[in-house]
Write a structure and sequence with these properties.
Elements: H1 6-9, E1 13-19, E2 36-37, E3 40-41, H2 42-52, E4 57-62, H3 66-73, E5 79-82, H4 89-95, E6 104-109, H5 117-130, E7 134-140, E8 149-153, E9 156-161, H6 168-171, E10 175-184, H7 185-191, H8 208-215, E11 220-224, H9 227-230, H10 236-256, E12 260-261, E13 268-269, E14 274-275, E15 280-281, E16 286-288, E17 292-293, E18 298-299, E19 304-306, E20 309-310, E21 315-316, E22 321-323, E23 325-327, E24 332-333, E25 338-339, E26 343-345, E27 350-358, E28 361-362, E29 367-375, E30 377-379, E31 384-385, E32 390-392, E33 403-405, E34 410-411, E35 416-418, E36 421-423, E37 428-429, E38 434-435, E39 444-445, H11 462-484
Parallel strand pairs: 1-4, 1-6, 4-5, 7-11, 12-15, 13-16, 14-17, 15-18, 16-19, 17-20, 18-21, 19-22, 20-23, 21-24, 22-25, 23-26, 24-27, 25-27, 26-28, 27-29, 28-30, 29-31, 30-33, 31-34, 32-35, 33-36, 34-37, 35-38, 37-39
Antiparallel strand pairs: 2-3, 6-10, 7-10, 8-9
The protein binds uridine-diphosphate-N-acetylglucosamine and magnesium ion.
Length: 485
């Protein structure tokens, strides 16, 4: 159930998220706001944070890569607005049709993925409590680089000056504009038409709203935020940094919940992943999507697990790759195992090194210890799959066929099952067999050439004979000598 926030109780908030910019410095064909941060498009973080903070409506301003961004963001429940030409941040806000908004407006950039709902709630509370007409969220940075600088007179907010338009003295100011604004809807609608593009970039700067508000005797103030809310992503290095921080956040969360992490900073665990208390995560583990890891399970180094459920006390040994699979309690997988989609490993089953499975149900306590491929297979309980076993599921007609193996079957090494084929309970398959026909319950099936022996098949050549004779004599004399001693 969604918890009711202060915002829902007090005033109505609409968020306008600016996401029309080109993102030139990303040097990537993908629209900037769709670049994934820890597996999630960066715009999604901003949308989610707004929703969780209790914003009642979200308006996205899109422009560059419009169709793609629209398609991706559609399920998030935000309205989209188009900014035909990127004429600046004030023009972007204007594109979101602010004249038909009631209550308060929260304006944010779509490229600030580190923002959290708690930050937004705090800003909204401060705005409401101090009775501001216009608020800008500021942050103090050691290296303020390209950020707009906050100008204060006698401690009071006076203006925002863009770095490009700033004097060398102004550039020394380390309080910056984070690009987050809170403003009464009617004030916003009144201010926007008054903003001009008389600046070095010939853009309509939203920052001008501050000086306009002050000149009109409105209550304009700064709300101090933390550094993280100022962190925009403008290039690949900043994207990688944001990703690292989000993964770090997740690792800390998991440790707080009792997960044992041997080297938390090396792990990449997406926000959607659930890891139970008591599980152990080794270094360099990548866990994605809907993955769940049960308590006391161990995920060894180098494992990559996507949308998979791992039960309790299971072991996923080093360098295993799992995708859309289920591993039940106390089973062990790997090292170097690959479980492809729709694979289910039963309780206490064992899948060893260099074993690949696809769309396979592998029963309780069954074992496939080494070097095997099982695809489109159903393997019962307590089955032994010998080393080098293959289910030949793909036929010349380009269709896939099933192999069914009952309970307690013993499959000798280097067996091929030519699907479709079915093996009864308790059957035994001789090593090296190519099984093309069904095998009944409790039967032995051997399908390989018989071994035959032809003695003296290799004829020794004359020089070898002489050599052989000489060395035999030496061996003989050695024995005799030893015997004499
Ligand atoms: C802006 C602020 C600056 C602040 C910084 C914080 C202005 C003039 N400057 O600068 O004071 O320190 O953010 O990150 O507002 N966008 C549009 N349409 C446009 C232009 C921009 O949608 O026409 C969007 C961009 O996609 C981006 C956001 O607005 O999400 C900010 O634009 P950007 O060009 O990155 O502004 P900055 O130069 O970073
Ligand atoms: Mg920016």
């Amino acid at each position: 159930m969604k918890t009711q926030t202060n915002k829902e109780k007090n005033q109505q908030w609409t968020a306008i998220i600016l996401a029309a910019g080109k993102g030139t410095r990303m040097k990537s064909p993908l629209p900037k706001v769709l670049h994934p941060v820890a597996g999630v498009p960066m715009l999604h973080y901003v949308v989610n944070a707004c929703k969780k903070a209790g914003v009642s409506e979200i308006r996205l301003v899109l422009g560059h890569g419009l169709n793609l961004v629209k398609a991706v963001s559609e399920p998030w429940g935000a309205q989209t607005f188009i900014q035909a030409q990127q004429l600046g941040t004030a023009d972007a806000v204007n594109s979101a049709n602010p004249t038909n908004i009631e209550g308060n407006v929260l304006i944010l950039n779509g490229d600030h993925p580190l923002i959290e709902s708690t930050d937004i709630s705090q800003f909204m509370d401060e705005f409401e409590d101090s009775g501001l007409d216009i608020g800008v969220v500021t942050a103090k940075l050691k290296n303020p680089r390209e950020f707009g600088r906050i100008i204060r007179h006698k401690g009071q907010l006076a203006a925002i000056v863009e770095a490009k338009d700033a004097s060398s003295e102004t550039l020394k100011i380390n309080e910056v504009n984070t690009g987050i604004y809170l403003v009464k809807a009617d004030v916003l609608a009144d201010c926007l038409p008054k903003i001009s593009n008389h600046n070095s970039k010939k853009e309509f700067y939203l920052t001008d709203m501050i000086s306009i508000g002050i000149s009109e005797q409105l209550k304009v103030g700064a709300i101090l935020g933390n550094k993280k809310v100022a962190a925009g992503v403008n290039n690949q290095a900043e994207l990688a940094r944001a990703t690292r921080l989000i993964f770090q956040r997740k690792a800390l969360e998991l440790m707080e919940d009792g997960v044992l992490m041997i080297q938390p900073l090396s792990t990449c665990i997406e926000a959607t992943v659930e890891v139970a208390a008591g599980a152990v995560i080794y270094p360099n583990v990548f866990l994605r999507g809907k993955t769940k890891i049960g308590s006391f399970s161990v995920v060894e180094p180098g494992c990559y697990i996507v949308d998979s459920q791992i039960g309790e006390s299971a072991q996923i040994k080093a360098y295993s790759h799992l995708e859309k699979s289920v591993v039940d309690h106390r089973a062990s997988v790997g090292p170097f195992a690959r479980l492809r989609p729709e694979t289910h490993i039963g309780e206490e089953a064992h899948v060893g090194n260099f074993v690949e499975m696809k769309k396979t149900k592998f029963g309780k306590k069954s074992k496939a210890g080494h070097l095997s491929y099982l695809g489109d297979a159903e393997v019962g309980e307590d089955v032994n799959i010998g080393c080098g076993t293959i289910t030949c599921n793909y036929a010349v007609d380009k269709k896939k066929y099933k192999t069914k193996i009952g309970n307690h079957v013993f499959v000798g090494s280097d067996t091929q099952f030519i699907a479709p084929v079915s093996i009864g309970d308790h059957a035994v398959i001789g090593s090296g067999s190519t099984i093309t026909k069904d095998v009944p319950e409790s039967a032995l099936a051997v399908a390989r050439g018989r071994q035959f022996i032809k003695e003296n098949y290799v004829k020794p050549i004359a020089s070898d004979m002489a050599q052989h004779k000489h060395s035999s004599e030496n061996e003989l004399s050695g024995i005799q000598k030893k015997d004499e001693v």
